[in-house]
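Entry:
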Amino acid sequence: MTAAHRMRSGMTLAFIAVIAVLAALALVAARASAGAARAAGRGSQEKIAFWDYVSGQIYTVNADGSGLAQLTHVTGGVQAMYPEFSPNGKLIVFAVGNPTHPWRIWVMRADGSHQRQLATDTRGFRDSTPVYTPNGRAIVFSRCLPGDGVCAIWKMRADGTHKQALTPYVPSGIHERVDFGPAVSPNGKRIAFLRFGSNGIQAQIYLINADGTEPHALTRPSLEASAPAWSPDSRWIAFNSNNNRTGSHIFVIRSNGRDLRRLTPSRFPHNDVGPRYSPDGKQIAFSSDRRYTDGCCFDLFEMRADGSGEQRVNVNLHHAGILDPVWQP
């Protein structure tokens, strides 16, 4: 073999070696890129609905903050509030009204189309905070007496018919109370809700059976707990403290009232409120005003179910008042 042949052979071997290294690096990069794409795709496919108290409208957004979509366009000073997905994720039930326009329950498709009032009610009564039962056949909601009257937990069929009370109205005396904001357990057996004012207690989470029987307090009075939300396995309930004061935190508690845990630290006078589990139970979405000094606005946040990994979801909504985020099933 001549010197020229040996040189060409050496160059060929070196070239092949370089190509092999570059190919290996490309494969590693491609795998990393594919993994990132899968992660991004998973985030972008998960939707969260919420209402914005600044605009008075309901929106959806992908869990990574992209794809913001305004679903409602209510006018005349009313607000669209308290969105809740149906169990199959195809519908959203919500409330429309204001202090002078009694709240009514509406329903729309998950893309905001085909909006219609779901149920009528007696003049002056107010219906709000609707949630579906796990089988999608019924809706549990708050029904309040005219004026500044008290509220009770009610139930109706998913078509708005056959209303029935699950908790009674208690309109006067020391036992006067307001039952509000129900959350039905994923196994359909129990309902958690917020009770205001009973026996002088500011706010407390109560549990009842699905038929309204066996009411009992879940949280201690000092927590002033509100906004209950069930984990997908029905074992835990997330909520926020200090319902009537500043400095709210996110907690979780077992549905038997044991093992209370605080997930977010004190940020007084700021507030972390309205927790909601993701469908797989691994994350919790909530609202926080921690970035604002005047309490003007609330941002959307997410964290792991153990409270770690808090991060703000950068929703492209200027001066937002994001409340009651709920994941699409």
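The chain has two domains: 1-45, 46-327.
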